[in-house]
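Summary for the lay section of the report: proteins are chains of building blocks that fold into shapes. Here we show the chain for Cell division protein FtsX and then a coded description of the shape we predicted for it.
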Amino acid sequence: MRESGNRGARDPGRSGLGTWVDHHLYSFVASLGRVLRRPWATVLTVGVMAVALALPLGLWLVLGNVARFSGQVQQAREISVFLKPAVDGVRAQALAAELRRRNDIGKVELRTPAQGLEQLRASGLGDAIAALAPGEDAAGVLPSLLIVTPRGDEALLAASLQTLPEADLVQHDALWRQRLDGWLRFGGRVALVLAALLGLGALLVVGNTVRLDIQSRREEIGVLQHLGATDGFIRRPFLYLGAWYGLAAGALAIGLLSAAAVALRAPLAELAASYGSGFALAGFDLPTAAAVVAGAALLGWVGAGLVTGHYLRQTRPTET
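The coded shape description reads as follows.
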């Protein structure tokens, strides 16, 4: 910083813009050098910041995957309409055709009593069904079933289907999805609160680190102030120092979360496959990861700027 100050103050041939650019480049490289010359202190600072950033980011990632899973479930939501036993197969097929023509219905699947019996037998319950009607056709005790996939509001469609004269029972699973949406909204609010609190913690960590660096260079800063250096000129190297800390912390946080996602992806895929689902855990895409790293660098810049600005206001020479 001293070398750059001499060049900026004593080279009248340089334009103001050129001096400004030169000092930015010098501060950019010199601050990186100071970070690398203190590896242990840098690792501690970056590690604490990375953990503080990884916690809300991890919660946000989990909520994103749960919301994605919820969206997949909602896309495949179905309403089961059990028809009255008196409704024969011909009328059931005609009713299915009528429902397919409705604008609020995307798909209708007719499951006959014989098909339902085959499914029960495949699940090991065929004997139990046959026991309900000994000596008779076991399929005769089962009703026809319409599986309706809604195109619009599920609750309204279920209420409408309940009014059908042929309908005996209408089942749909809207309640648990509404509760899941409520938990997702609550989790999103928790993630925002954690992000604010832990972001403040990261801000304090980088601010304290920069403060220690300022204290070790206070004599140099005092000389520059007496030589007429502006606050922006003095502050600039510390701003880049904070940005380097934030950049490294953001990259480390993304790395930690990516490693955790890789470790959890295979067990979660096996668990989802056991339920017949192809759901897979998704990590950060490249634009999101870049935005997180850039945001962490900005956080470090702001923290360094606040601390440096406070110090300069306290030590600014008074005019006589």
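Put simply, here is one thing we learned. The chain has two domains: 2-73+178-315, 78-172.
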